[in-house]
From TrEMBL:
Residues 1-58 form the HTH lysR-type domain. InterPro entries: LysR_HTH_N, LysR_subst-bd, WH-like_DNA-bd_sf, WH_DNA-bd_sf. Keywords: DNA-binding, Transcription, Transcription regulation. CDD domains: PBP2_LTTR_substrate (cd05466). The keyword DNA-binding applies. This is LysR family transcriptional regulator. GO terms for molecular function: DNA-binding transcription factor activity; transcription cis-regulatory region binding. It comes from Caballeronia choica. Belongs to the LysR transcriptional regulatory family. Gene3D superfamilies: Periplasmic binding protein-like II, Winged helix-like DNA-binding domain superfamily/Winged helix DNA-binding domain. The keyword Transcription applies.
Amino acid sequence: MEIKWIEDFIALAQYQSFSRAAEFRNVTQSGFSRRIQSLEQWVGADLINRSSFPPTLTPAGQLFREAAEDILEKLFDTRAIIRTDQRIGGKGVQIAAGHTIALNFLPGWLRALSTHFDEVRARVIPGNVHDSILMLVNGNCELMFAYHHPELPLHLDPTRYEYLTVGVDTFMPVCKPNQRSAPAFRLPGTNDRPLPLISYTETSYFGRCLAVLLAHADTTPALRLHYESDMAEVVKKLVLEGEGVAWLPRSSIRAELEAGELVPAGTAEWQLEVQLRVYRDASNHSEFLESLWRHLRAASEAAG
């Protein structure tokens, strides 16, 4: 039995929808259903009444939910205590962020921060969106950075978790240039010559961004999947090697665009604007975090 099965089950009990719970857990609905079935096999009883709409808990499911929530709470509380003992003291902050944000945004952001706060020590923990959210919810970081799009909400309780918008990024299609410095692959492509696509796994955040963008496109592009990864840096490397066209955040390819190593593979209609947000738990009233948040709010208001 795996902890993630219990977390899946609790999410399903909360949302009463396989599709919404799967989205929250950042997994495909089919994969989510298989994990719930695996948990039921481990327990030895049906936990979900699938004949009702919305799906409800069986008596066994209600009993298991009470025990599961108690077990997870104690487990995560213990982990938080252990991690707190290893936290950075003084003017220190633990930051959870997606890999792309950690690589391309946070270094400059931390340098700018050091001009306002002396001797700030930061520990950056890169991961996927779901893991970053769990770190924030479980009290294992002070700040969490993530991209935001209105159609891809993070499902955080707004009464508990505050956020500030600290930047805007553009999710855009790029490819290697040809000998004439024009795009080697140009959207939308043609049915007889579909463009080789270097894409993301469908459950990754950028994979979901691409799905949103293509769903709103006036023209259906002719694409054939060539490679797939859940990490933008892997996708970027394959594009730089000329393997196809891919959507990447502008912040991660700014230098390559300026140097002409990559070029836009389509017009602005193929781009998606996303916000970059920083979140914190409003119940954390540590003196340094409060001071830091006031500074970030003032900077955000001045920029807005």
